[in-house]
Amino acid sequence: MNEAIRDTAVADEPLTKAEAGLPERPGILLNVILLAVAILLGCIAMEVALRVIFAHSLDFSMEMWKYAVQLKRPVANPQLSFAHAPNRSAFLMGVPVAINSEGLRDREFSVDKPPGVYRIMMLGDSTTFGWGVKQEDTAAKFLERKLNADLPAGYNHVEVMNTGVGNYDTVQEVTYYETIGWKFHPDLVVLAFFINDPEPVPIEKKGLLIDRSYLVAFATNRIDGALRHTGARPDWKTYYASLYVDDRPGFQACKKALVSLANSTRSHDAKLLMAILPELHQINGESYPFKAAHQKIKDVMDAENVPVVELIAGLKDRGPEETLWVTALDDHPNAKANDLISDQLKQWILENTGNR
Asked: For residue 67, which phi and psi values (nearest 5 degrees)?
């Protein structure tokens, strides 16, 4: 009898968590969920903070990312890859940037050239586009104002079209002229050549996070900077020099595009001028490190009877190199440099146009 009572009492006792198959503490899954939520909230907080910090910044990498996201769009032609999205605007590197209906950082131009107008088309990359300077402080607009104050013989007005697009290389610049630019009937095409122009045609990376997340862009840019700082990636001198190795596909494509531009401008009764812009880190005295690279490009143009202006002549020895830069960490030409560039272009144009 007592045994039965004892068995019944035991049977009536509630089961422990272990006996019932329940965990004694929150399981691994719950911990993972809590960790994921904490990481997500941290990322959201960092995303908000970065959007505030870089809303109006002078950080080159982040501003270039914003430029690509806000003002560029992909195009079907693989030799062009991307172009400016028409009628968009943004605030980049401390200045307003507006794109017109033709995808240019400029005012509107009629396709048909007005009578008595001498029209110049400037092809180039971010240096021509005017990275970090106001539209009126680009080399194109300096040149336009100066030529209208001192007109080429036989003309009553000068138009200078700025067709520069950030991250364009020679192949893209030539493709733009041969597919779109020639329709504006420029009298003179000025190809502003920069040291990195033999790079392969870049592809704009598109995706939800790449296009929208400041945090992803910031992390990607800082990782790239760290790799360069530690030597895991080549420094600027080594990298630029490597672009001019004769068997590099990018260099071969660049030379082919230059010959094509010489032929296409001739076929459209336009003059072609190449203006070689130096890399502005080291230009004073005789220290410029890319003279051999420039000579290779000049040899291509000489063979096509295309004149070349070496812009370093009017830029060097004007004070410390940094006085020509947009910021202390970004050596794109500033307003002072663009003013000096336009002086040299104006001189060549007046000496080689009309009866002068």
From this structure: -60, -45
Sole residue written with tokens 């400016």: 84
pLDDT tens for each residue of 205-237: 655 556 667 656 667 666 666 666 676 677 889
The two tokens of residue 7 are: 């068995």
Select from 250, 302, 253, 251 the least CA-distant residue to 274: 302
With vertex at residue 137, the alpha carbon angle to CA 133 and CA 141, rounded to the nearest 5 degrees, is 135
CB-based contact 273:348 (threshold 8 Å)? yes
Of 153, 112, 131, the residue nearest 350 (C-alpha): 153
Alpha helices in 111-213 (DSSP H): 126-129, 139-149, 170-179, 208-212
Q: Cβ distance 123 to 170 under 8 Å?
A: no
Please, are residues 322 and 315 in contact by the beta-carbon 8 Å criterion? no
Size of the chain, expressed as the number of residues it contains? 356
Token pair belonging to 136 = 């009126």
Look up tokens 């610049």; give the residue: 173
* CA distance to 9, 242, 275, 310, per residue, from 293 (Å): 96, 10, 14, 12
Residue 77 CB: number of other CB atoms within 10 A? Answer: 14
- Burial, 251: exposed, middle or buried (Cβ in 10 Å; 0-12, 13-18, 19+)? buried
DSSP calls for 162-187? E---TT--HHHHHHHHHHTGGGG--S
Q: Are 191 and 275 in contact (CB under 8 A)?
A: yes
Mean pLDDT of 263-292: 97
